[in-house]
Amino acid sequence: MRNAIIVDDERLARRELRAMLEESHGSAVRVVAEAEGVRTAAELVRTCDADVVFLDVQLAGESGLELLPLIDPSVAVVFVTAFDQYAVRAFEVNALDYLLKPVAPARLARAVERLALPNDETTAGTSSPPKLDYQDRLFLRLDDRMGFVRVADIVSIVSDGDYSIVQLAGGRTHRARKSLRDWGARLPENAFARVHRSTIVNLEFVERVEEWSHFSYRLYLRGASEPVTMSRRYAGQLKR
Fold this sequence. Notes:
Elements: E1 2-7, H1 11-25, E2 29-35, H2 38-47, E3 52-56, E4 58-59, E5 62-63, E6 76-81, H3 85-88, E7 95-100, H4 105-115, H5 119-124, E8 137-142, E9 145-150, E10 154-160, E11 163-168, E12 173-176, H6 180-186, E13 192-196, E14 199-202, E15 206-211, E16 217-221, E17 228-230, H7 232-239
Parallel strand pairs: 1-2, 1-3, 3-6, 6-7
Antiparallel strand pairs: 4-5, 8-9, 10-11, 10-14, 11-12, 13-14, 15-16, 16-17
Helix pairs in contact: 1-4
């Protein structure tokens, strides 16, 4: 049995979702509280021992996404949103599922089924995230907060173990909880290129390329104070 909180600023929407859960999935999910705002929801997650949140993305005067850094990462999140799949795919959070409004009974049933799976099986049952488009906005943890980043604003990404250092247009630099391999799997290939085993750059920001020692190159990026080294191996791939 999972203890659930419904977070939505519309009372009718909360009532409808609660009725669907109680009438069809009462043996798997128990709705323990409802909230219409982020702060109230965060407090209820703690006090009601909730382990799943059905979260509306658009709340009155705030975003439901602001709740994510305020709750324990072990709490499952099911987005309930009017956004289409094209927009939802950019949310880089550990969301178990998302439901489009109006919520279809069959999709709700599938989300509840996934709630019953162990974490490893839930992960295994999901497909790889699709490639991002250049104009997408990516939602991820930067330093110690959550926020949106426009893909087009990423200048370069440098590996930092299981993390990465992301330089954005305007000189801003952040540490992201995302490996270089993860970035490479999602960034649009016609705009971003691996130029070193530890570096990915946005080709739109490359101002010039100069030959360097041992058949390597230096890439000068707009807005970056230091050039980026491109190894011989990756230079050959980029030329092809």
